[in-house]
User: Which sequence fits this backbone?
């Protein structure tokens, strides 16, 4: 049972344009969401997070949007840069003391085309 | 300040052997989490430990897998009698307080191959 779904295995975007990565979840108990970036042969790196009390969180070029009614979140990267090429994982957790147990999606491989 | 250190980076074991994966958390971090990534899948939670205590092992397979985080030394994930299905990347993360919040960092992982 895949509780966090990233339905696009891959995405290609022109450098300078906006990259939009999507994530859907099924567990209504999830209340904290994170995005991680992963390069080959490295561990995931935390990018940005959002609590369910918010619908938007912004950090530089990265913005995460949360639509609780649709159980959907998205990561926007603008402008996209070649260094953004990586696999992006969406993750979710339930409860303040539950976020040591993250549920990850299967990832989206983002390729930025120079 | 060194990051989370995992070793070995690559480990090859024959079926039936034991695998020991080590994780040294970042300095000042006393909370350790182990995740496993099977090919073409996302990371899956295995176990959460604090020094000398297992807090949550709900993601650990019931048999052959064990984890510890002793008072001194690294955290160890131990897999006995490995099978082909154990082949995966095993990631450790650490944080200074409970939770995979902004202060949590992952190591580079150990890639276990069972032949």
Assistant:
């Amino acid at each position: 049972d895949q509780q966090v779904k990233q339905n696009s295995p891959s995405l290609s975007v022109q450098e300078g344009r906006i990259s939009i990565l999507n994530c859907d979840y099924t567990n209504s108990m999830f209340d904290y969401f994170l995005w991680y970036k992963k390069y080959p042969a490295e561990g995931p790196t935390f990018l940005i997070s959002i609590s369910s009390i918010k619908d938007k969180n912004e950090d530089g070029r990265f913005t995460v949007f949360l639509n609780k009614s649709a159980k959907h979140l998205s990561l926007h990267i603008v402008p996209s840069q070649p260094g953004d090429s990586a696999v992006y994982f969406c993750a979710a957790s339930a409860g303040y003391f539950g976020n040591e147990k993250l549920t990850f999606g299967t990832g989206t491989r983002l390729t930025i085309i120079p | 300040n060194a990051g989370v250190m995992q070793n070995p980076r690559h480990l090859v074991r024959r079926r039936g052997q034991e695998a020991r994966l080590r994780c040294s958390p970042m300095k000042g971090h006393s909370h350790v989490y182990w995740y496993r990534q099977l090919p073409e899948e996302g990371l899956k939670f295995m176990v959460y430990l604090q020094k000398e205590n297992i807090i949550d092992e709900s993601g650990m397979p019931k048999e052959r897998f064990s984890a510890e985080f002793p008072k001194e030394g690294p955290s160890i994930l131990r897999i006995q009698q490995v099978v082909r299905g154990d082949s995966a990347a095993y990631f450790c993360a650490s944080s200074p307080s409970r939770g995979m919040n902004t202060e949590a960092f992952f190591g580079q992982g150990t890639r276990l191959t069972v032949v």
User: Anything to note?
Assistant: The CA atoms of residues 6 and 23 of chain A lie 5 Å apart. DSSP finds no helices and eleven strands in chain A. Chain A has a mean pLDDT of 94.
